[in-house]
Amino acid sequence: KAGVTQTPRYLIKTRGQQVTLSCSPISGHRSVSWYQQTPGQGLQFLFEYFSETQRNKGNFPGRFSGRQFSNSRSEMNVSTLELGDSALYLCASSLPETYGYTFGSGTRLTVV
Amino acid sequence: SQQGEEDPQALSIQEGENATMNCSYKTSINNLQWYRQNSGRGLVHLILIRSNEREKHSGRLRVTLDTSKKSSSLLITASRAADTASYFCATASASGNTPLVFGKGTRLSVIA
């Protein structure tokens, strides 16, 4: 059974650019959550999608957006990148009734 | 914002010793989960304990939950060098339909 796949693994972007990260959940998992991980703030919740609908949103500016497709794959987009957006972005999928998350390996974004 | 607070922030032990990590949280929960993260990669789900459970075992892992004190502990027995990682507790709110909230983690180093 394939795990959660995140692409790309590494990205280097320049301030002001935008970036799109992709997440393919485990087959059959309809819930996808995104987290940002930094040394200072730890794991911060970004969004959660379920059946193409955003179910929850964390406390991030509007530059951070996401969506989920009918096949449950999800993307997140960050526009007008800032240096502080440098982080490990983690995607997780789950079956709602079990609550346990399966995480991907993450996308390491560096903004220069 | 973090719900769980792990203690200690870092722990260094010899191979074969037991490692105990603690987690405190603030609000009522449906369940509490523990995850492991190796060096900036994705998180791996270790164990889930529901609010009506007091203790749970999985291999060398033992988790306890005290809802009256809003705290949990993770015990790893007979530690191995491969257990070196960061360990996070995460809480699922009792109010339901909200994302997992993670603590900042305990960095465990097991020295061979």
Largest interface: A-B, 25 and 25 residues
Based on helices, strands and strand pairing, what is the structural class of chain A?
mainly beta
Number of strands of chain B: 11
Q: What kind of assembly state do the chains in view correspond to?
A: heterodimer
Uncertain residue ranges of chain B: none
Globular, elongated, flat, extended or rod-shaped: what is the shape of chain B? Answer: globular
Q: For the residues shown, what is the average pLDDT of chain A?
A: 94
- SSE arrangement of chain A, N to C: EEEEEEEEEEE
Q: Can you summarize the main beta sheet of chain B?
A: 6 strands, mixed
* Number of contiguous helices of chain A: 0
Structure explained in plain terms:
The complex is a heterodimer of chains A (112) and B (112). With 112 residues, chain A is an all-beta fold. Helices cover 0% and strands 54% of the residues of chain A. Chain A has strands spanning 5-7, 10-13, 19-24, 31-38, 42-50, 53-57, 64-68, 74-78, 87-94, 102-103, 107-111. In chain A, the strands form 2 sheets. In chain A, strands 2, 4, 5, 6, 9, 10 and 11 form a 7-stranded mixed beta sheet that branches. The N and C termini of chain A lie far apart (37 Å). By secondary structure, chain B is an all-beta fold. In chain B, strands 2, 4, 5, 9, 10 and 11 form a 6-stranded mixed beta sheet that branches. A 5-stranded antiparallel beta sheet of chain B has the order 1-3-8-7-6, with no helix packed on it. Chain B is globular. The N and C termini of chain B lie far apart (36 Å).
Features:
heterodimer, A: 112 residues, mainly beta, seven-stranded mixed β-sheet, four-stranded antiparallel β-sheet, 0% helix, 54% strand, globular, B: 112 residues, six-stranded mixed β-sheet, five-stranded antiparallel β-sheet, 11 strands
